[in-house]
Amino acid sequence: MTLQGHSIIGNSAVVGTGKAGRAMNPATGETLSPDYHEVSEAQANEAVAMAAAAFPIYRKCSIAKRAAFLRSIADQIEARGDDLAARGPLETGLPEGRIRMETGRTYGQLRLFASVVEDGSWVDARIDHADPDRQPIPKPDVRSMLQGLGPVAVFCASNFPLAFSVAGGDTASALAAGCPVVVKAHHSHPGVAEIVGQAVQAAAQLCGLPDGIFSLLYGGGRTTGAALVQHPSIKAVGFTGSLAGGRALMDLAAARPEPIPVYAEMGSLNPVFILPEAMAERGQAIAESLSGSVTLGVGQFCTSPGLVVAADDDQTAQFTTALAGKQQEAAPGVMLNSGIHDAYESSVTQLQEHQAVTALAAPVQQEGCLADPALFEVAARDFIGDSALSSEDFGPSTTIVKHGSKAELLELAKNLEGHLTATIHGTEADLEANRNLIDVLETKVGRLIVNGYPTGVEVCQAMVHGGPYPATADGRSTSVGTQAIYRFARPLAYQGFPQSQLPPELQDANPLGVAQMIDGNRHV
Amino acid sequence: MTLQGHSIIGNSAVVGTGKAGRAMNPATGETLSPDYHEVSEAQANEAVAMAAAAFPIYRKCSIAKRAAFLRSIADQIEARGDDLAARGPLETGLPEGRIRMETGRTYGQLRLFASVVEDGSWVDARIDHADPDRQPIPKPDVRSMLQGLGPVAVFCASNFPLAFSVAGGDTASALAAGCPVVVKAHHSHPGVAEIVGQAVQAAAQLCGLPDGIFSLLYGGGRTTGAALVQHPSIKAVGFTGSLAGGRALMDLAAARPEPIPVYAEMGSLNPVFILPEAMAERGQAIAESLSGSVTLGVGQFCTSPGLVVAADDDQTAQFTTALAGKQQEAAPGVMLNSGIHDAYESSVTQLQEHQAVTALAAPVQQEGCLADPALFEVAARDFIGDSALSSEDFGPSTTIVKHGSKAELLELAKNLEGHLTATIHGTEADLEANRNLIDVLETKVGRLIVNGYPTGVEVCQAMVHGGPYPATADGRSTSVGTQAIYRFARPLAYQGFPQSQLPPELQDANPLGVAQMIDGNRHV
Fold it and tell me: Half-sphere exposure (CA, 13 Å, Cβ side) for A492?
């Protein structure tokens, strides 16, 4: 593999006309060749114009062809597994095993979306037959199904260089929905982005798809990123990153002459509630697993548990001691880049200096991009309403919040803003006795976990990796799992159409065998 | 029936502390008692606070109870049919028959949503079972279903005093999804609003629902309306009205600390394309039916056909003559209020003064709120790109656009912005020869109609009353039909939950018998 440092605009490799940048190895501080030049606004516009031209062709592709494209991308990525395993650790500090596992998740996800496309039922085909004899007016024949929105701009995340990047969940679900994609690479892993971009480009050419169905651009968030979001031909945006970055894109999108949806996954604290019986029965075991979840991937998961809530009693004191020990034992890890590392150092310093906070495992400031795991403690009465304590602390740190009563526990839960997940450790009796806590948490998150850990987001039919703002831009959506496809689709109704002009999914003969709702009855 | 002039805040009747206003009979110019006082911001906030308090109770109601509530509202409205038929025409200028038909549509719609709630399948229940033996890591048990967003603010439309008003589609679908509703009445039909508000309040009390599940407020758009949209406890907005009004709400909602979705249906031109063979075979018949569609309800439908596109040839000339005759014959009608009337007079005057436009049926300026039907003509080359000709002309007027070639026809279609509907009149051969026109229109509208008329929006499973901006705020949604419920819901996942703590829809035993997707397979 030789990296070229080129952006990909449709079938072409293009050298950006803007300034050059290089990846940095966060473990050594060395820069990595080649240079990646930022594209100009004109180059970004060209990619979008080509995506807009590709859309009418791509949306009319057979579902077999669309599924074959997704499978071909998966195959092309799988074939580049060794290249990714070689380059990935250099750019991200993540171990090779993690890169290989994430590569598998990425091509597995593409194959899952291929099966969703082939199954065809996601379009929610509905047929209401006519009744010409209905009084006082005849009933028309009306049919509807979901269709792709149009070209989608995807912003890569730093923390998942494969699964939430060039051909990650946003791209896979947008392509599955019938939308061309223009990707803005993350500056932190340009080489991995290029390898995956070449895989997608190769698949598009192998499958004979229109030039422009996919582009990959190197550029800045405030330049290339803003140009993409503001381009009139872009119809939706996928993003994974910080609250500040996501909100900036939301504001740009809302201010357009034609506002468009932004699906920004912006992270969260992912509170973990440990109930009394569970604490008594297995507090030590929870401390061990929880520390593993907090430090997994150097805490650089959107679902990393940043908050632990428990009663202020002797059992929790023992748990706290055990958790502090585990956090102190855990070795410092290399973070993804210096920006993330500096933000972590700054947020743990703020916590250490906060009057109400006690450092139970104080982090030691490290050289380079190394981050030391940490544990803090605060009383629930101090935590509630202090927004400085509620902001995400991206890294291998967590804060235990101790409450004095069930009423205080509920008050804390009610005061939470939106999070991706909440976790409850409890026995059956604990859960029964705290049903009102579950009821509150149901309104605060996208996923509730019992007796598990929030890290590890299964790619499946039922997964919801979303949650109310500020966890995401749009709590009505998920960025992981098959339901992610709904983000990039809209319903379209056909009234009085002859069979020959209907999409196959809406024909009475149902040649593709998709699930249909016929006159209100579901058929699978 | 005695109207009280009271706002409804939960179980209470409340006199607004703001300025008083009265309905006006648009046919006579007389004002109608009683006074309706605008609520203060504090009163609006009280209604929202009560809705927020009601939400945790209402969302945990059994689906049987929720369905019973919707049916009870329907019954209460049906029981007030004579009161509505007496007051409605006075406030709106609409004939009694229309008010009675719209009342039937409104309670029918509530009963349809009751059946959707009872069926339970709309929640898209998904169950992915665990696989503890999976390598390299065990697969967790993950389940998901849709749940209500929270309190919804609904803004009533002027043009459908029942079906898009206090207990119209927005309210019915929000209540069905499990969301409390705070309605802002339209100043144009306060009495009808009060009668329907009392019906909903009576139903809520009969069904033992929490105080605050429903409120009805009289107030201004920039005061009460803005207060509702900006209140942190409001989680979504339903609106039907003008582009300016809808966009203002969208901008307010997007600028909130926590942005929320706005579903604003803002109307459109609803272009009608007449293809050559259809024009030759039945141009006269189309002219007659089209004039009926344009003048139906004095043209005050969001789906009123404001644009007719046809080839510039002899057959179209005959059609045009026939259509002009029908428009001239059609009697002036009473519009809903003076604001709408003045806007119509202003827009037809602008068209008459436009250099490229010919008035084929010039409207005669009328007294009071009367509006005279009109027909204008313009060449496609002048229409394309002249945004002054593309804005909605709300009233009994339409414009015929004549094109010189199929290329010009396609160019016109490609340049359309988002509309609620597009209609094509064509023989099978016409449609086959103009498949590329259909392909373009699929990307421009929410509903495509063949050989019919866009007015008359069937309330059914497949209806899409939506369309890309500026037809609506959010082209991913519909405000009519059962799919409207999806606007007010979000998915929530449960991981590792014991059966006893799962909602019934997600239990293995499936006690409610809802459709479930189990390990990727759909079961109905």
Answer: 26
Query: What sign has the CA pseudo-torsion A484, A485, A487, A492?
Result: negative
Whether B131 and chain A come into contact, CB under 8 Å, resolves to: no
- Average pLDDT of every residue of chain A: 97
- CA nearest neighbour of B151 among B168, B122, B171: B171
CB A182 within 8 A of CB A156: no
pLDDT one-digit tens code per residue, A115-143: 999 999 999 999 999 999 999 899 999 99
Q: How many CB atoms lie within 10 A of CB B111?
A: 17
* Burial degree of B58 (CB within 10 A; 0-12, 13-18, 19+): buried
d(CA A207, CA A72) in angstroms, rounded, equals 8
Which CA distances in Å does A440 have to B38, B56, B231? 34, 8, 20
Contact flag B450-A137 (C-beta cutoff 8 Å) = no
Interface of A with B in 153-182 (CB under 8 A): none
- In 3D space, the residue among B394, B395, B352, B396 whose CA is nearest the CA of residue B377 turns out to be B352
**d(Cα A192, Cα A201) in Å, to the nearest integer?**
14
As a 3-state breakdown, chain A gives helix, strand, coil percent values, each rounded to 5, of 45, 20, 35
Contact A501, B493 (CB under 8 A): no
* Measured distance CA(A51)–CA(A66) in Å, rounded: 16
**Residues of chain B with C-beta less than 8 angstroms from the C-beta of A515:** 522
* B421/B166 Cα distance (integer angstroms): 25
Torsion of CA B495, B498, B500, B503, to 10 degrees: 10
B120: left (phi over 0), alpha (psi -120 to 50) or beta: left
Q: Which residues pair with A376 in a beta bridge?
A: A359, A399
- The CA distance from A4 to the nearest CA of chain B, in Å, is 35
Predicted TM-score (pTM) of the model is 0.98
Helix and strand counts by DSSP (H, E) for chain B: 15, 23
Which of B:199-258 have CB within 8 Å of A?
A: 250-251, 254-255, 258
**Which residue, A263, A88, A296, is CA-closest to A188?**
A88
Indicate the length of chain B as a whole number. 524
Per the annotation, the verdict on B265 as an active-site residue is yes
Q: Is ipTM over 0.95?
A: yes
What's the rounded Cα separation, in Å, for the pair A165 and A25?
18
Q: How many CB atoms lie within 10 A of CB B512?
A: 18
> Do A416 and A322 contact (CB within 8 A), yes or no?
no
CA-based torsion, B380, B382, B384, B389: positive or negative: negative
Helix (H) or strand (E) holding B362: none
Query: Residue A467: its pLDDT value, please?
Result: 97
- pLDDT tens digits, B433-443: 999 999 999 99
CA B156 to chain CA centroid, Å, is 10
Q: From CA B116, how far away is CA A446, in angstroms rounded?
A: 24
* Residue B203 near residue B73, CB atoms below 8 Å: yes
Closest CA to B187 of B12, B426, B380, B18: B18
